[in-house]
Amino acid sequence: MNTVKVSFVINGKKREVEIRPNISLLELLRDHLNLTGTKRGCEVGECGACTILLNGRPVNSCLVLAPQINGKTIETIEGLGTESSLHPLQKAFVDKGAVQCGFCTPGMLMSLKALYDGRAAVNRDDIKEAISGNLCRCTGYQQIEEAVESVFTKGSNEP
Ligand code: FES
Ligand code: FES
Question: What range does the domain containing 35 cover?
Answer without folding.
Answer: 4-79
